[in-house]
Amino acid sequence: MVKRKTKKTIYFILILCVFAIAVGTVITQSIWRGKSTNEKLDIIFNRTVNNKQVFDMAINIESADGKFSYKNSAGNMKENSPFAIASITKMFTAAVVFNLMDSGQLSLDDTIEQFFDKSDIDQLHMYKGIDYTGTITVGQLLSQTSGLPDYYTEKTGDGTSFEEELVKKDTAITFEEILERSKKLEAHFVNGTEGEAYYSDLNFDLLGKIAEKVSGEKLEILYDKYIIKPLTLESTYLSQTDSSFAPIYMGKEKVSRHQKYLVIPGLQAVLHFTVRQSRFSSSEP
After folding, report:
1. How far apart are CA 85 and CA 179, in angstroms?
2. Could you give the residue ranges of the DSSP H alpha helices within the chain?
3. Who is most buried in 93, 186, 221, 235, counting CB within 10 A?
4. Residue 190: count of CB within 10 angstroms of its CB
5. Using CB atoms within 10 A of its CB, is residue 234 exposed (0-12), middle (13-18) or buried (19+)?
6. The pTM is what?
């Protein structure tokens, strides 16, 4: 008899819990439906900027007919704050390269030995004791299938990566230093190996330099010529050593002056939101 009463009590409590959850859900949905679009976006925005994974944020949403507009910002960012778009800049560099191909100045099958002195790139791609550097093509750089190591994230002989060094102290690195650092690392596979790919910043550092060499112009000029001006991106630019933009976070560490992006050609662009439109600007290859 006691067991039956206990079971009934448990069932009753479970039913009450389910009912409470259902009622709570209906009430929550009803409250949510009663809120304006701007109020809903405020809630989503504030939940996103949690100071754990997302520290700074700016958003500008506008309907095509201009009847709806929503803007908000948090952290170190204001409505019109420029910010680095990091490796999205690789798309900018790729667009420049394809434009140079259209004009006949480059080909996917061109090898990097056509553009650099042998002494500069000698043993840049060492795999199992064999140097494959001279056979790396522009197409392989673009598709991240060169097998080249990534000097930025991989640890050299001293046990640290360049990324880790940047967290400890803001620093700058030249293209020549990138090559020397990369030569201390082992390649991941023979370039062009079917089914293989490895993400490396070095691929686009090389592409940025190649674009400059064949065109005779600086990468920032090429960005302006092929992307920024044709698309009227008024607040987009390739960052320079005196550029100012929102802090970059590496994990939870804030790097206020990420000079690595500010020194290497094609490495970083800055994105700037304007009141009327989103304006893209990039600073990394």
Report:
1. 24
2. 2-34, 37-48, 89-102, 118-121, 138-142, 162-168, 175-182, 201-215, 219-223, 259-263
3. 93
4. 15
5. middle
6. 0.76
Within 10 angstroms of residue 176's Cβ, the number of other Cβ atoms is 9
Two tokens at 187?
Answer: 């390649």
Contact 67, 74 (CB under 8 A): no
Q: How many C-beta atoms surround the C-beta of residue 110 within 10 A?
A: 18
Q: Cα separation of 263 and 241, whole Å?
A: 6
Strand (E) or helix (H) holding 255: strand 253-255
What does the pLDDT look like over 145-180, one tens digit per residue?
Answer: 999 999 999 998 888 888 888 777 777 788 999 999
Nearest to 143 by CA among 189, 192, 184, 103: 192
Beta bridge partners of 73: 58
Q: Which residue has the higher pLDDT, 58 or 103?
A: 103
What would the DSSP string read from start to end of 188-218?
SS-TT-TT-----HHHHHHHHHHHHHHHSS-
Most confident of 19-33, 70-84, 87-101, 227-241: 87-101
Please give the Cα distance from 208 to 20 (Å, whole number).
Answer: 61
> Token pair of 72, please?
């908000």
- Cα–Cα distance for residue pair 196/189, rounded to 1 Å: 8
